[in-house]
Design brief:
Blueprint: E1 2-13, E2 19-33, E3 36-42, E4 52-59, E5 62-69, E6 73-78, E7 82-89, E8 92-107, E9 112-122, E10 125-138
Antiparallel strand pairs: 1-2, 1-10, 2-3, 3-4, 4-5, 5-6, 7-8, 8-9, 9-10
């Protein structure tokens, strides 16, 4: 496993045009197995719900987001496709429907960039447009493996 730095930027625009931005950075781990990159880290932006372990399963044509802890979710992003999941919180479950409008994955040996544009509905109600940018970089002591 390689040590990595994970930077996540999220931009959400609701149906009224109001924009909400979230940025976070975390240390994590990376490994490559069976043609897929795996990135593991603690999502600090979800801190109100306790610790949330996050796994990104990155394939050439898809991104699978797995969350466990204070909230739980399994969400698949695949270009021009729709997927559904249950977002479990201490306050109850929400049904999410995601329509991936654009998925761009550029990944090397340890580092990479992922950008996803998608629309989301919660319990059948449209929520607006979203953009997710994820940058994974080798940690300082892993720079020899940086690509």
């Amino acid at each position: 496993m390689n040590k990595v730095i994970v930077k996540v930027k999220s931009r959400q625009q609701d149906m009224d045009g109001e924009v909400n931005k979230i940025e976070m950075m975390a240390e994590g781990k990376h490994y490559y197995r069976n043609g897929k990159h795996y990135v593991l880290y603690e999502d600090v932006s979800l801190g109100e719900h306790g610790g949330v372990s996050t796994v990104l399963k990155i394939a050439p044509d898809s991104l699978l987001l797995l969350r466990k802890g204070g909230v739980e979710q399994e969400q698949l992003f695949r270009d021009a496709q729709e997927s559904s999941s249950i977002y479990r919180t201490p306050y109850g479950d929400l049904r999410l429907s995601i329509r991936t409008n654009r998925l761009k994955i550029i990944y090397g040996n340890v580092s990479g960039n992922i950008e996803v544009d998608y629309t989301m509905s919660v319990n059948g109600q449209p929520q607006g447009a979203n953009n997710l940018q994820i940058e994974v970089c080798a940690a300082a002591d892993e720079k020899g493996k940086l690509n």
